[in-house]
Design a protein that fits this description.
single chain, mainly alpha, 4 helices, globular
């Protein structure tokens, strides 16, 4: 996988993640549920990032190997980091991880 392809898929993943997070937040607001948006964003970002890589593999008939699975995991992590890049969200994410 080239760097250009990785970045292109990451941009598409980031866009899809933003839309998906807003949809989930809207649904939870209508249900009058309380929630923390950071874990929701991270989970959705991981799912979207990994799913988009596997969709790309399927469209281009790329065989699934250990290396391609590693690329998918890297995409999920990169998308999750991108979903939490504002200072407040990163601070909340760190506090949620370490219980501060």
């Amino acid at each position: 996988m080239t760097l250009e392809l990785f970045i292109t898929i990451l941009v598409m993943s980031a866009t899809a993640t933003s839309v998906a997070v807003q949809i989930v937040k809207t649904i939870l607001d209508k249900m009058e549920k309380t929630y923390d948006s950071v874990p929701i964003a991270v989970i959705i970002a991981m799912i979207v990032g990994v799913a988009e890589i596997f969709i790309y593999y399927g469209i281009n008939t790329i065989p699934i190997t250990i290396v391609t699975i590693l690329y998918a995991i890297c995409m999920g992590v990169a998308n999750a980091v991108g979903a939490t890049t504002s200072y407040d969200l990163v601070k909340k994410f760190i506090n949620a991880l370490f219980g501060k």
